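We examine the record.
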Amino acid sequence: MQKRLFIVGAQRSGTTYLHRVLDEHPEIYMAKPIRPEPKFFLRKNAEEIDLKEYNKKFFRDAGHHKILGEKSTSYIECETSAKCIYDCFPDAIILILLRNPVQRAISNYRFSVENGMEKLSIEEAFHREDVRINDWSASVSPYAYKERGKYSKFIEPWTRLFGKNVILLIKEDFTSNIASIQMLYERLNVDASFVPNCYQARANESKIELGNIDGLIKQLESYFKPWNKRLEEKYNLDLASWRDSTNSYGLTDD
């Protein structure tokens, strides 16, 4: 029986790269198209799900692959999605790619500006997040800059249901690191010697000028410090690569 895999988050953390790394592997088939994301299990319960429709729509061209996977990064914020996926595929593998939350927030802001959803300066946008966060549906929510970086609160429902089948990856340690990629292949029980063509990723440089935001970065580092500490301790993670947020904050990985 084919194993199921879901990349559920986090947004603006390099999940498209992760999707490519998996999809290139000959034993893994990822749902097509990648955009728009399937979001098939978003805010539904198992009784509403037609798995035949799901497979026909997104896995029509899948052969005898060992793993069938999907990437929908809105899932991580939706506890009902976790329950729905669990009810349909209790043995599914859940992948969560985490990025320094300061850099993730800045990338999120740039994305919102580039797509015409944000008109405020970055300082004002972050300051007014609490009063604007519900202006859009939760699956879009272009103003959840800081909220989405509180990773531990979003991960917990998934680990409660899927236990050790939840695999947490750190973007800064995973991207372009063939050893980490092959370690993931090994954990997925597929050929770990495979080298994907895309593994040397090139991040896109954003054209949105922010000026000097070193002060804002320091504020964000302080804001996320307790959340990062909780994440590190609860899930036994090494977040040393997140200590300095000033590096590469102009990049716009999705």
Notes: The beta strands are 3-9, 28-30, 67-71, 93-98, 166-170. The chain has one domain: 3-242. The longest helix spans residues 214-234.
